[in-house]
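Hi everyone,

Forwarding the result from last night's run.
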Amino acid sequence: MLRLQKSVRNEFKSSEFRRMRKRIACMLTVRRERELEEGINKRLSRKLDRQWKKSIVVRPPPSLKKLQEEEAAAEAGKSS
């Protein structure tokens, strides 16, 4: 998110990077603590993480879908 703002040259505070890194680290720590409570060892944790990452399906945003449908309709209209 912050890199996107930086690349678009929107105004942002450089301290936000540090704050976001710390938030991510805190969330990962809590996640690992919960895994330890459940008895999940490090190896299984990494395996589950890889499986989870593979299960993520990237979908285009609705605005892009609508644009693609309009282009397809226009192309179908031309060929008719």
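The chain has one domain: 2-42+53-79.

Cheers,
N.
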